[in-house]
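Usage example:
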Amino acid sequence: MPDMLRNEQDVLAVTESRDFKTYHDFVRSCRKYVEGPLVHSMYDSYRIAIGDNVEPASTEEAMPVLDDLLEFQLYSWAYRHLQRFKYHRPNLGIFATIDAEREYLVSELDAAASAAGDHLRLNPELDIPEYYRMVDFHQHTGGVWSDELAGIAYEFGRRTTNASHMDPNLIYRMSYSQFPERTYNKVLDWGVGHGAGLIEWQKLHPESECHGVDLSGPCLKLAHKRACENGYKTYLSQQDIEHLNFDDDTFDLAFHLFMFHEIPPINLKNSLKEIHRVLKPGGIFAGPEFGLSGKSAFMDVIRMSHAWTNNETYSVEWFKFDMEKVALDIGFSKVTIEPFKPLSKRDGATSADANRWSLYTLEK
Amino acid sequence: MKATKEKFKTVKRGPVTADQHEPDWIHDLPPDNMVAAITALAGEVYTLRERLRATERELERRDVFPQGAVEDHEPTLDEREADQKDLDAFVDRIWSEISRSRAPWASVQRGVEKYFKQPD
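Running the assembly step on the lines above writes:
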């Protein structure tokens, strides 16, 4: 519980039964098996299937080999259906659990939002981009924006992806530890979501004035509520990242976590132009993102499969996006793309580990 | 709703859109493996059953429960109704997986491919 929490009773919480916790421990453990032992076993079978032949050099060559592997079929089923088991089970799914307390949760979020003043600016008239409306990202039914409690479901979903004993905010601290060491007076969380990333930044950097933008009103309402619970005064607003309403040269730092793969390439370029505009000269835009290895066709087919199993629909186009060229064309003075160190040297990492993560740092 | 025509059994090369059937992902599951998984699950269930039996016996031996308390347990009328609802819901949760709609539960709208373009 954060030190600055004013009163435990002020914290918006969904009632979690013992069965709910146990069930989600089980689902999470299935996911862990899929990402670990199953992938390693798949790689062994892949090597056997190749036999004495040369290892496929391209994803096109690797696809038919993987297509015949039972491990890949089970992996694909699990990537698709474990999300359903997480969200949709009639008794223990996240949606049913949240829905049981809908009235209370909505009223609490609304109460916090109505007292927010400048700290939460919602825009019900905002034209939600079509690309965002077309895809239920990560199989979150209705997207993370259409239901009043979508923010809470999104926050729950994050928690049930990590082991219960793990700190779900660790990923934020890992990311921030890789940003250039400077004093950042004014920062922007680019796609603030449920707010945990921005709150974690504020904890580590009390000197920063913290802003966050998102397309999702329900997420922003939750983010505001969480900020209040932690005693922080953040500035959250519902905006399209292609059309920000901040003045030129406003921010010392803008950051994100894994946003690029959710945005179509042309919209991404437009959004980068906007972030360039609102950064101060010398300002930084930074965040981690995953990509293809370019070295292991085996891993790259697996990575690409998430686009279709888990509705990470724009990710395959993201993998082709030339960030360095686009960012330099826009006017960023320096572009650094390097392995995301905190997760690049994990204990027990093998050639069969699924994710290749990079830290993208763009300087204006 | 249409079935997708794919080059591969499981590997996909495009989104599962809302107007498509939810695909089958598993095509080559050997029946022996399925039986093995069910046997493994049965082993887990039996282990749980044995622990429950031992727990009941210990509770009776230590006079926490009267002899035969579990076996002779008679729910009240309200409890019977609640138990029946619980049982019905339990059966529904299992059997509805078999009769589950093949519509995708999370949507990708048809036409999304128009966003699969790189900038100039």
